[in-house]
Amino acid sequence: MRKIAFSTIIAVALAAGPAYAQEREAEIIQNSAKVLTEMQAMPDLQVPDWLLQRAQGIAILPEVVKAGAFVGGRGGTGVLLVRQSEGDWSNPLFIGIGAGSIGWQFGVQAADVVLVFTTRKSIEGITDGKITLGGDASAVAGPVGRSASAATSVTLDAEIYSYSRAKGLFAGVSLEGSVLFIRDGANERFYGKSRVIASDIIAPGTPLAPEPAPALIQEVARITSAAPAADGAAPAAPEAAAATPAVAAPPTAPPADAQTFPMADPNPGAEPN
User: Fold this and answer.
1) Does residue 148 lie within any of the structural domains?
2) Other CB atoms within 10 A of residue 225 CB
3) Structural domain that includes position 195
4) Number of domains in the chain
5) Residue 67 in contact with residue 113, Cβ under 8 Å?
6) Within a domain: 123
7) Which of 25, 95, 119, 136 matches a 20 to 30 Å C-alpha distance to 125?
8) Residue 8: pLDDT band with limits 50, 70, 90
9) Residue 267 within a domain
10) In the predicted model, what is the mean pLDDT of residues 201-210?
11) CA distance 68 to 70
């Protein structure tokens, strides 16, 4: 009887394992959508419109944890969405971030991270396997504010712009040297396909991902479609309505010639007084 009960428990646990794991992936997608919405609502953290319009990919990594006690490390899981040739956004691809470091450090920090990819090369790098920020692809801290200028990189030569919202205390937070890589297991669990590859997930025409992915795709499409013209110029002000010409006053008639009327002389023949 005990053996049967134990076998039943094991069977239930094995059956529940994949379902729990899939719930974890769904939670990551929901948290990613929340992070993106909240950061774009904060003037001191939001990605500028001019950069969103140029984005070839957007990665959101909620709660990247960095911890250290002389020897530190960083890790987290998030999603990457890629802009397709027609301008639509792909299904989310699960990615991870990791790094190790040695040096004087102590503390724990969790941070929400958003990465904006500006080149196809940087996107292809991660879909091929992994990329190192600052190594395989140039990465800089991005300018913030809806109307922020491109002064950080006038020629837009950085491939990746990073944004983070810290939730703890850790001096010198930096993504330099971090490695982005594909979470194959997470993609297999969420999409329910064995050995699914990145190109299959982000390819145009791929069936829409299961819930709650559509809401995240819609949010990314919303914030990128709200961007103004690519040249960054403010929308031209509507032309002022032409002033209505004043109606000319009718010409004034010239004054009539003066006329005189003789008065009767009360004393005819006498000298005037």
Assistant:
1) yes
2) 11
3) 8-225
4) 1
5) no
6) yes
7) 25
8) very low
9) no
10) 94
11) 6
